[in-house]
Amino acid sequence: MPNKKNKNKKKNNHHHHNNQHQQKPQHSQNGSHEDEVEEQLKNLKLDDKKPEQAYRVAMSEIYGRYLVANRDIKPGEVLIREPALAIGPCVSADPVCLGCYMPVSLKITQYRCPSCHWPMCGPNCRGNNHPKGHTFAECDLFKKENAAAPLTPTASPEQVKNLYELVLVVRILLLKKLHPELYERIMIMESHLEMRKKNSELWSHYESNVVTYLREKWHLAEQFSTEEIHTVCGILDVNCFEIGQNFAKARTLYPSAFLLAHDCCPNTAHTDDPETYDIILRTSRNVRKDETITLSYAYTLQGTLKRREFMQAGKLFWCCCKRCSDPYELGTDCSAIVCAKCKTGLIRSINPLEQEGEWKCDKCSFTLTYKEVVKLLDKINNDLESIDPHDVPGLENFIKRYSGSLGPNHYLLLSAKYSLCQLYGKIEGYLLPNLSLEDLKRKQTYCRDFLKVVDILEPKLTRLRALIMYELHAPLLVLAQHLMMQKLISSRDFQKTIKEVIYLLKESSMILKMEPVGSTEYQMALAAEEALEKMGG
Fold first, then answer.
1. How many domains is the chain partitioned into structurally?
2. Can you list the alpha helix ranges (DSSP code H) found in 79-225?
3. Same domain as 155, residue 103
4. Does 490 lie in the same domain as 365?
5. Residues 489-498: what's their mean pLDDT?
6. Of the candidates 57, 458, 516, which has an alpha carbon nearest to the alpha carbon of residue 255?
7. CB under 8 Å, gap of 24 or more: what pairs does 418-422 form?
8. What's residue 14's pLDDT?
9. In which residue ranges is the amino acid composition biased (Basic residues) (predicted)?
10. CA-to-CA distance for 442 and 393, rounded, in angstroms?
11. Beta-ladder partners of 425
12. By the 8 A CB rule, do 40 and 23 touch?
């Protein structure tokens, strides 16, 4: 599936991150808490190269705080570049180094911190004894409580996930004494604590897995109250970003990026610097004056049901953006299901904002209940998840099997197609020189299918669009060369294809060069430039 950078904000759906959180002014001694927050909002720092008037912080009684364009903003403008306030491992069953967040194992041979015995990448990890990595204070606590003891080769995925979930929470709590000003800036952020208390399943999870564990097993009860720890958990759920480059994965809190509103068809894109973990946020398309500046905290290439479910579960609000309100998802039809009765119609939600509402065929009026749709999608998704990520025949069979059940642009079919776009030409047995004409045609078709949807949901200067454009250039070029040698196309048609290939390489290179130096995407930009040079483009 396409790489998710998001992590995880709103226009008519701002209410979540937006009734939010600000960093506290460090020099304010008087006035109310709200006054301090408002003062901080006025003084948010932008990238030094960009004028402060690019955006302003707006306030709505319904939606809270969010960012609005002060002027027309062109695609590619850097709006925010800022360092993380706190960083730690993602909540995952996959162990990572506490210093640099690269994958590690739990094998006996894996290097571990000599003091606390937590798995690390090696003795020279750049994040060892570093504020954004494995600090002395953290190490002392882990050593004292023998925290890494459960991380054995036989540890269950649940044990691993539960332990790694604690790390960033602890790092923030330790700031209270070590860096109180940072702690204050974080604790001002929105936690939706009262809403979380009403969600028994959510509250119970954090009460048992985090709060009780830290207070009783790690003996932090005297330093931190139950509510204080719950607040930190809420702040992370509502405001954190998932970042990562070159296999590293982490979650972070930033001073002002959290203010961006959520929208399922956003007008900005963000990346992170692999060396500093700074977030870099740019406009991805033209943003008009007074337009809300948005970012997607859900995965844009999922259907409306799943996106809204994700936002409600983690961010505690139901998204009501233009895309979520449209049964056709802005013309992409990413959620449409083929009618099992008439076989010719497509079934869509009658009212997507009614999460558990009916779905209806556009030809024969056959209906499905919410539960029936969820059951069907879960089954198909489980089938997709069971396929090895590098199994080309398995993915092809998945597409063949479910093309009669799902609409042509359904997000589950798109996921399989995206995987194949990346596999054809890249893995053993399917390297570019060995691809059959049929394989090349399939790759070309899948790239075009995917790009058609991305051009609507993540248009202009977006990473995903650039990646798929780069993938598309190769089958186009090889097929054109083959057809020309066989004299199956005219010179004019050949030149037309070459022009498209040059456009794809130039566009993808231009977009991917906005990524940090050293990132995989930046390396791909250089590869695109090299291909252009060879073509004389």
1. 4
2. 136-144, 157-178, 180-187, 193-197, 200-206, 212
3. yes
4. no
5. 96
6. 57
7. 418/1, 418/2, 418/301, 418/446, 418/450, 418/468, 419/1, 419/389, 419/395, 420/392, 420/395, 420/396, 420/446, 421/446, 421/447, 421/450, 421/468, 421/471, 421/472, 422/471
8. 36
9. 1-19
10. 12
11. 431
12. yes
Residues 72 and 92 reside in one and the same domain = no
| Type of residue numbered 21 | H
- Least trusted range by pLDDT, from 239-248, 292-301, 523-532: 239-248
CA 352, CA 522: separation in Å to the nearest integer? 38
Task: Judge contact between 78 and 92, C-beta under 8 A.
Answer: no
**Section 8-21 average pLDDT:** 36
Q: What is the extent of the structural domain holding 268? A: 33-83+255-312
Beta strands (DSSP E) in 322-401 are: 337-338, 346-349, 359-361, 367-368
What is the distance between the alpha carbons of residues 370 and 236, in angstroms, rounded to a whole number? 30
Distance CA 469, CA 488 (A): 25
The mean pLDDT value of the chain amounts to: 91
Q: What is the pLDDT of residues 256-290, one digit of tens each?
A: 999 999 999 999 999 999 889 999 999 999 999 99
> Which tokens is 262 given?
């959520």
**Is there a single domain that holds both residue 157 and residue 219?**
yes
Q: Provide the b/e sequence for 232-248 (b: ≥16 CB within 10 Å).
A: bbbbbbbbbbbbbbeeb
The helix (run of H) or strand (run of E) holding residue 242 is strand 241-243
Which tokens sit at 77? 């403008």
* CA atoms of 71 and 409, how far apart (whole Å): 36
Pairing of β 261-262 and β 294-295: parallel
Q: Which amino acid is at 86?
A: A
Do 386 and 281 belong together in one domain? no
Neighbours of 131 (CB within 10 A): 15
Ranking 17-26, 74-83, 100-109 by mean pLDDT, the lowest is: 17-26
Cβ 210 vs Cβ 165: under 8 Å: yes
> Count of H helices and E strands in the chain?
17, 14
Q: Please indicate, yes or no, whether residues 116 and 234 belong to a single structural domain of this protein.
A: yes
Return the ∠ at Cα 421 (arms to 9 and 388), rounded to 5°. Answer: 85
The one-letter amino acid at 54? A
Q: What is the pLDDT of residues 83-128, one digit of tens each?
A: 999 999 999 999 999 999 999 999 999 999 999 999 999 999 999 9
pTM of the model: 0.85
Residues 444, 365 share a domain: no
The side-by-side arrangement of strands in the sheet containing 346-349 is 337-338, 346-349, 359-361, 367-368
- As a whole number of angstroms, the distance between CA 350 and CA 352 comes to 6
Work out the pLDDT band at 64, boundaries 50, 70, 90: confident
Domain final position from 190, 216, 243: 243
